[in-house]
Amino acid sequence: MGASEQTHSFVNSNQTGNDTAPKAIERWLVEQLLNLAGRPPLTVELWDGTKIKPYQTDLTARLHRRRVLYRMLRNPSIGFGDSYADGSLSIKGDLLTFLEGLYRSVRDARRRGGVQRLLRHLQAKRPRPNSLSAARENIHSHYDLGNDFYRLWLDDGYMQYTCAYYPDPGATLEQAQIAKMNLVCRKLNLKPGERVAEAGSGWGGLARYMARQHGVRVRSYNISAAQIAYARHRARQDGLDGMIEYIEDDYRNLTGEYDAFVSVGMLEHVGVEHYAALGKVVDGCLKDGGRGLIHTIGRNQPRRMDDWIESRVFPGAYPPTLGEMMPIFEPNDFSIVDVENLGLHYARTLTHWLQRYELNFDTVREMFDPAFARAWRLYLAGSIAAFTTGGLQLFQVLFQRPESNALPQTRNHLYADAQ
Amino acid sequence: MGASEQTHSFVNSNQTGNDTAPKAIERWLVEQLLNLAGRPPLTVELWDGTKIKPYQTDLTARLHRRRVLYRMLRNPSIGFGDSYADGSLSIKGDLLTFLEGLYRSVRDARRRGGVQRLLRHLQAKRPRPNSLSAARENIHSHYDLGNDFYRLWLDDGYMQYTCAYYPDPGATLEQAQIAKMNLVCRKLNLKPGERVAEAGSGWGGLARYMARQHGVRVRSYNISAAQIAYARHRARQDGLDGMIEYIEDDYRNLTGEYDAFVSVGMLEHVGVEHYAALGKVVDGCLKDGGRGLIHTIGRNQPRRMDDWIESRVFPGAYPPTLGEMMPIFEPNDFSIVDVENLGLHYARTLTHWLQRYELNFDTVREMFDPAFARAWRLYLAGSIAAFTTGGLQLFQVLFQRPESNALPQTRNHLYADAQ
What we know:
The structure is a homodimer.
Chain A: H1 24-36, E1 43-45, E2 51-52, E3 60-63, H2 66-74, H3 76-86, E4 89-92, H4 95-112, H5 114-124, H6 135-138, H7 147-151, H8 173-188, E5 195-199, H9 205-214, E6 217-222, H10 225-237, E7 244-248, E8 258-264, H11 275-285, E9 286-298, H12 307-313, H13 322-329, E10 335-341, H14 343-359, H15 361-367, H16 370-388, E11 393-400
Parallel strand pairs in A: 1-3, 5-6, 5-8, 6-7, 8-9
Antiparallel strand pairs in A: 1-2, 3-4, 9-11, 10-11
Helix pairs in contact in A: 2-3, 3-12, 3-16, 4-16, 8-9, 11-13, 14-16, 15-16
C-alpha cells in the first residue's frame, strides 16, 4: 500500500531545472521547517542533491525546485501539497509511511505546545479562496468530477463515498460498505413503513439500501445535480422509485414528518456556525419517538481542516469535535444514545480506495491531468495517515427524543450476527 | 412500584392542623404554580379539603398545612421535597406516576420556553447552603449514613451505588451489577497484570471485581474513610489485598502510571470547573496505549441539579452534558471511542433499589427518623422519574490516546455472549 514515487517518473525532469545551488540560509530555512514539524524521521533532498538528514532513513522528500522551499515557508501544508501535485516535490520511499511519520511528529510537537503559535502564524498567511494560485484550477471541485471518476475506485453497487464498517478485517470494500449501511439501519432500528429523512444522498446508495432492506420510505436531500440524476436513475432501475424521493435542495429546506433522520458524510460540509440551524431542522421534522443518526469525520481537538485539503480538495470542509457538535443536540433536548468512533475503519476504507485508485492511476491522468492524479493520491494517502495517527476521527452519533422507547435498551441486537 | 401514601399515615394528623381556610389569593397562587409546572395532570388538595383539579385524575398532592404553599412559592423544588419529607405534603396515588407526570409537564413547559425565566427567578431565591432550614439536619450527608443503611437496599456482594446494566430486563439487581462491572472491564479490554487507576472506590466492589476477574492491579482513590475501611476489609477477606491498594485521598493526588483509568459514579461530585484538572490527572497517569472509562449521570442540556436534591441529598452534585465533559478529553487529545447512554438502566436499577427500600422502610425510620425515611423515598422515586422522562441520562464514555491499538476495532467482543 502507498505508491512509491519511482513508478511515476515524469517529475524527475524537474531535477535538472536551472535553479542555482542552495544558499546557507536556505539550508537553515529547511532546518526551521523540520523544527516546526517536530523533527520528523525523514530526509530532505534539495534541488542540487544536497541531503539534510536528521535521521538515518530512506524516507526522503525531494525538493526538485527552489520554489518548493519558498512555497512551504509561506504555508507548509499548501506548499507541500501543491508541489507534490505539480511534481516539483516527490517522495522517495513509501508515501503513506512518510506521511504517518510526518503527522505523528507534527502532532507530538503540537502537543508540546511551542509550535502551535508558529503554525497558526503561517496558516494565517494562506491564500484567500478568491486569490488561489493556478494549482487550484488543476483540482476540480468535488462535484464536477463526474461519476466515472468515482466509479474507478469506490465500491461497486452502492458507490459509498463515506467510511465503511469492517465487521472483520478481511472484509472486502463491497462487504464493508454494506455492513456500514446495515449498522446504520440497525442503530436506527428502522421498521417497515416508517418514513426516513436523509440529508446528503451521495449517489443514493444508502436510501436504496434502507428502502430495499428495511421497507422504509425515504426522502433524501442533496445539492449535487449529477448525483441526484444518478440516484434517481438507479432507484428506477431497482424498482425503488416509489419508495424514495430524491430532492435537489438544501437540507435546510427539509419538510415533512419522519420517524428517523439520517445523515452520513454531510456534516463535514455544513460548517460549525450552521449546526444549530441543522439541529432545528431535525427537531422540526422528527416525530415523537423519532431518532436520528449523524455520521461524520471529526477531531479530538478543534482545529481547522488542513489548509491544502481545504483549499484544493474540499473547500469549506471542517471536521468537528464531539463538543462542537453539541449545538445540534443540546438545544433540542435530544438524548445522545450511542457514539461510536470508527476512525480506524476509515483508514481501512481509504486503503481500499487508494489500492483501486493506484490501479487506475493512468486512467485518472488521462481523464484529468498528472497534477490532478497526484493530488488525489496525496489526498487519499494523507487521509489514511490522519486516521491512523489520530488526527481525524469518525463519529457515528445516535440520538432520540428525551422520552422515547423506539430504541432497544442494549446493543445486543447490533451484534447478534457476530460470532 | 412506587409507594402509596396510604400505607404511611403518620402525616394525616397534620390534616387537622389549625390553619384557617384558604383565601382566594392562595387558590390563585396554587394555579400559578400549576401554570409554572406546565399544567401537570394532577389535583392539588388544600389544607381544608378544597380541591384544585385541572384534570380528572386521582393523582393528588395534598397540602396538609398552609406553609407548604408558601414554601413552594419560595422554591417549588425545595418546598415540595421538604414538605414531602416532614409529612406536611403527601401524595394520593402512585408516587412514581405522580412524579413522572409532573416532570414530563415541567420538561415540556421548559421546552416551550416561557417558563424557564420564571423558574430561574424562583431558583435564584433558594436558600444558601449555610442558611439551610432545620429540614437539612434530618437529611444526613451521604457519607455519614453508614454501610448498614446502604446494605438494606443495594445489591448483596458488591454494594454498587451506581447504575447497573441489564443484559435482559429480567436480570436481578445482583446479576445486573455484575453485568455492569463486566461491561466496564470489557470496554476497557483489561488484561492480566495491567495496572488500573480508579477514582472513587465506593465500597471497593469494582476494584475487587477487576482484580479477581481480570487479574489487574488496582490503585483506587476515595475520600470516605468509612468506605475505605469497608473496602480494605473486604479485599483482605477475599485475599485480594495484594492486588488492590485503596488510598484515602483525593483523585487529584493520583500518582503512578497506568494502563487504564476508570471512574464510575464520581464525576457527578467533581464540579464542571474541575473537569480540566481531572483531565490533566488522567493524562498524567495514562501510559501510551492507555485508555479510560468515565461513567456518570448526565443531562441533555446544561441545567443545575434539582434544588432539593442538591441542597438536601447530594450537596455539590452536578450532572454534566456530554458537551460539558469535553474539557476532560479535548485538551489532552483523547480519542472518544464509545459513548453509551444507560439512562433507562438506571431507572431499572433505582426501581430495584426502591423496592428493597420500601421493604425496609420501617427499619430506616428507626435507624434515622420518619422525615429522613420519606426524603429518601422521594429521592429514589424522583430519580426514577427523572431517568424515565429524559431529565437525567447515564453516560459511559470510553476514550484512549490518539494513536492506540489497545482497544478492538469493533464492539463484537462486548456482545459475544449475548444470544
